[in-house]
Amino acid sequence: xxxxxxxxxxxxxxxxxxxxxxxxxxxxxxxxxxxxxxxxxxxxxxxxxxxxxxxxxxxxxxxxxxxxxxxxxxxxxxxxxxxxxxxxxxxxxxxxxxxxxxxxxxxxxxxxxxxxxxxxxxxxxxxxxxxxxxxxxxxxxxxxxxxxxxxxxxxxxxxxxxxxxxxxxxxxxxxxxxxxxxxxxxxxxxxxxxxxxxxxxxxxxxxxxxxxxxxxxxxxxxxxxxxxxx
Length: 230
Ligand code: DC
Fold this sequence. Notes:
Elements: E1 7-12, H1 18-29, E2 32-35, H2 36-49, H3 61-67, E3 73-78, E4 81-86, E5 89-90, H4 98-108, H5 111-125, E6 130-134, H6 137-141, E7 147-152, H7 155-168, H8 175-191, E8 204-207, H9 213-228
Parallel strand pairs: 1-6, 1-7, 2-6, 7-8
Antiparallel strand pairs: 3-4, 4-5
Helix pairs in contact: 2-4, 2-5, 4-8, 7-8
2'-deoxycytidine-5'-monophosphate binds next to α2, α4 and α8.
């Protein structure tokens, strides 16, 4: 199938499988894949390492905003996909810890951080042939995206998926902690003032509670064929 130079936005709740789906779309269509959450996580890692986070998920927003000009976050492509860098350090593993997960939503609430990340994302995505996943891609980063997908799934199923992922990378996290973290992030992400998580008016909902990745690709190919196929 010939695909024109389009932008695809994949938004939705935490652990709905956005990145696995978006990566597969990128592979199938030879698009660039951009994980916007990874940039928020890298900024959060910087904040933790520099003592800008405190007890109970608090973040020193003023100090972090003032530090943004010295934060250098980027994606670098290799044969095995895209990697997230903080300066010259690959931080793919360090940004997936439960500590980063528990501070990332409060960091992502800060308007200056959002502007900072949006600028980087728009720069990477401006040429098209890109699939980007996040919370506000279809509403804020690329409101002109050609295809917008909004992913949802049952919260218990999402917690199980995230737990499995974390266990596979050696974490000893338990189900209740992961479930609580997800619920808290859902709440903060959808209630913040700047670019809250919400479905764009022209987005198509994909509920993958009972779908495999291949089921989702079948669903996607149908839509892409009917909208953009020749
Ligand atoms: O997709 P993820 O779980 O890696 O995202 C981590 C956090 O980053 C998520 O809790 C909210 C925030 N985020 C955001 O606010 N806007 C985005 N476009 C992507 C992520």
